[in-house]
Protein 1
Amino acid sequence: MAKLIETQLGKAGPGQDDVAVGELVTSPAVMKPQHRPLHDPTVTFEEYLHYARNTRLEESSHPPVGRETTAWSLIFPSKSDAGVAQKVGGEKANSSGPNTHAGVSDEEWTNASRALRTATRGACFYLITTDILGPSSLPYAFATMGWGPGITLYTIFAVLAGYSGYLLYEIFLGLDSYEYPVRSFGDLGYRLYGPWMRYLFNFLQGLQLILLVGLNIIMSGESLSQSTRFQLCFIVCCLICALIGMVAGQVRTLQKLGWLANAAVWINLVWVFITIGAVAHYPPNYRGSGASAGAVIDGGIHITPDADGNYPPVQTSGGLPHSDSFAGSVSGAMQAVFSYGGSMMFPEFMAEMKRPKDFLSAMWAAQAFIYFWYMFHGLFVYGYQGQYSINPSYLGISEYRLQVAANTFAMVAILIAAALYGNIGIKVIYNGILMEWFRAPDLTRRPGKIVFAVLIPIYWAIAYAIAAGIPNFSGLTAVATSICVLQFTYTFPPLLSIAFYIKKHAMVDGDGFDASTGRTIRADSGFSRLRRGLLGRRWYANIGNFFYFLGALALAGLGAYSSIEVLKDAFAKGSTSSYVCKSPLDGM
């Protein structure tokens, strides 16, 4: 007979001692989810799994209705932001013992989670397409890689990004519940690897989000300065964009932010079509050739004018062009990788969806949308501008009026994306620091909404100060992106999946969580359990995910190396901060 191991999940109240009976550990009181600390290490994987299954069953019993069931709901999402249907009834829970929500009934606790889940799959579709870093860098990426390698790598990265999203989807559905809601990427790491993984995830995610908000402030400031024909001081342009972002950032829920994201997607398509039309009818912007891909190809000879001032003709390459440095080639390839950097916020998106199961269709639709339009834009512009392709692509337009038009539309889309980054960044800080360390109120309550509103201008002010004060901020962000964003898309999902399926498939008949007694029942422990989980069901997926994880680590290392080399070169050339009046675009 297999050895029976039962682990009591709850902690006894004051003055109550655990009572050991043979090999069973029992307790006089069962601690309910609402009576636990925000991150309780005594909650086992089996308990998370138990409540997650109950939540998925409840969601299935309330299927979507009306327009949310049609394909059109992706393009025209519902305006309703009502949360999941509330449950009523239930007695007040026992308030004895060291807990943070004494006297809260089971229904009140789970209803608080239901109220936060307002986003539909249509809103999620637009949030994903808005979050992705944009198509503007792809012509430059193709110019440094050539037709064949560029198309191949971009397609591979698209498939792998979709696979990573699917892994996060499976893990989220297996661990999230109304009783124990998953609110961030860090929560997934905590439940599978422990506190250290949550701290790592939250730090990397928080760092990247505030840098992205800062970078978007600088980029939108550049666009505004160009639109004013450089008559307005550059640092003032950045300040104006930061103030606009503070106002847009007051949108608290992702469902409401989804309507801004909806607008951003179509605005992005407007400047994409302006760029496509302009490059097809006008020559490249030769004045900006020093910032083009040709500057790192063959010593720049393909962008150097002759004695009469005539620039070389546009050239494209079927294979990998000869670059001045290995770092330059890898840096160009990283632009394609970064186009799929949105996985960093997938758990946050699912956390606010009415039905997280709808995320999968929204994600695949968004990935297909991104792949088609980004690929089309990148290849079209590269075909017409070749080695003169600039990042961002609309700066390669030589006709000033069209360049300003594309720049203006891009600026609006950038600010909306920055509002999304800020929204998630503040929630990471709020849930991971303020609620845990300072007992801040839930965001569904009025005090929590007030604190959130106050944090918005503080967060944007810090992002603005960092972005404007660091020399060559875009270079620093490229390093942080290699270390952060790439990990969340390609490295962390397979790592989390390995732990999730080892724990899940190590369970045998009889294992699980008993809610009536608060016990987790396991047939065995130690190496035999680990081996069964690793080499049992889906052993091939575990092995494949392990090699995927190693490959992603190697890719991240190459990306970090290339970005650091590019940053070092920029510092060697005497880069300055953005606390200046002259716009970086002045003269392009």
Protein 2
Amino acid sequence: MKMVKSLILGSAAALVAVGGAQAADLPVKAKAVEYVKICSLYGPGFYYIPGTDTCIKLGGYLRADVVVNSNSDHTGNTSGAGGANNRFTNGYTWRSREDLNIDTRTATEYGVVRTFFDATFSWTSDTYAGQGNGATVYSPIGAVQAPNNANSGAVAGGTVGVYYAFIQFAGFTMGKAVSQFSAPWANYPGNNFDGLVGGGGTITGVNQFTYTAQFGNGVSLSLSAQDQTAYYQAGVNNILAGGAYGTSDYAGTIAPDLVAMLRVDQAWGLFQASFAAHDNHAAYYGGTELTGHPDDKWGWAGQLALSIKNIPTGPGDTINVQGVYTNGATRYNIQDLAGSAGANTVYGGTGLPGAYQSVGIGVAPDSVFGAIGGVNTGQQLVTTWGFRGAYVHNWNPYWNTSIYGAYAGITYNDTAKTLLCGVGGVGGSVRTTLNALGGAITTCNPDYNIAQIGTQTQWTPVKNLTFTADLTYTHLDQKYAGTVSAPSAAIGKPAALYELKDQNTVTLLLRAQRNW
């Protein structure tokens, strides 16, 4: 019986195993394939993320730039090696870039929830800097240089940038987006050149918390608090810290910039009024708390912008103009991509006997402070005004040409001029620093103007593929006169006398771009 029982149990186990194998071999009904569905709620290019009610759109561009006569791929040649006009000045700077953006939207009972992310991956031909000993060192553009010429923070010799990363919900915008102060065309009323003065920019976005109210018929009002640190600090310059214009002496962050913007956007065009309040928060007069500090001073900026569409000269022709005035908020005029943010040093030729070359100087911080006669001055705010504009004409669906221009004026008050220039031709940080080695400034006035004019032609042979040539002329109208000592080993400039003189520069941007 025991053996019979074992045989019966063994047979049962075998039958179960065979049955399991046969069951595994039987065809099973496959799950229905969930195809990606088009989402027509938010325009072309959106698709539903499978299994959700969220729509997503991928976009971007691939761009190749060549900038002629500049060491920068965006700001022109008004400082550093670009402004040297010698063998350290690049004949060209080349950049290749891929942009990727991800746009998601979900309909909710509170309205659409939107997220937007935009990143760039760039590879830029770089430049060389002198070491003052007959040798040069490689100076990567857009990357932090580490010892032995390694690129810390770079990706295989290139750079990664996060332009936009924000959430929009129930009228709020939270994250990194273009400043509400900026006109819709930001830095580009009719150009691709990044370095125009005359208005707000932050084309790469700024951290902000914004509420926008829509009143209908294209009328909206935005109230915003935005980070000032990355793009809106032009300098709170401490004259006591040394240097011709002092040294920027910021304290820690204390208050964001406050922005209000009213916009009317209709079929005829657009009108916008913007206002920004900017807190200038400096550290100490000296190295410690015992030296005291200047009080905070709030600066401000106001801007008006106007766009007129479909003017009689042709279908799609446009005029974009804007004007701005600032006091202690310089970057809302001389935006972060314009000429090293308002620190211009351009060299040129001279006919003055005894002078080696000429130099034009223009510096525009938010404020300067120091001491006069042993008495601390507090912050002295710098005033600027400016405008920019363009006219764009479409010759046909494939060709268009624009003419554009920009202007900015920078003015220091009397106390600031005394800090920089002294009294009666004696003292002052500019005179003391730049008169070294026998220089003689005969007119000391830190005010200056910048004028720019340019033209751009674009050819779009097929949809989303555009070739551009953009020529820009810049004139630096500085108010100094006489001679100074302006050496710079990094760009090969010797310790010699330079005539203080207005300067002119020209750059040409050639671009190919494929949007997708």
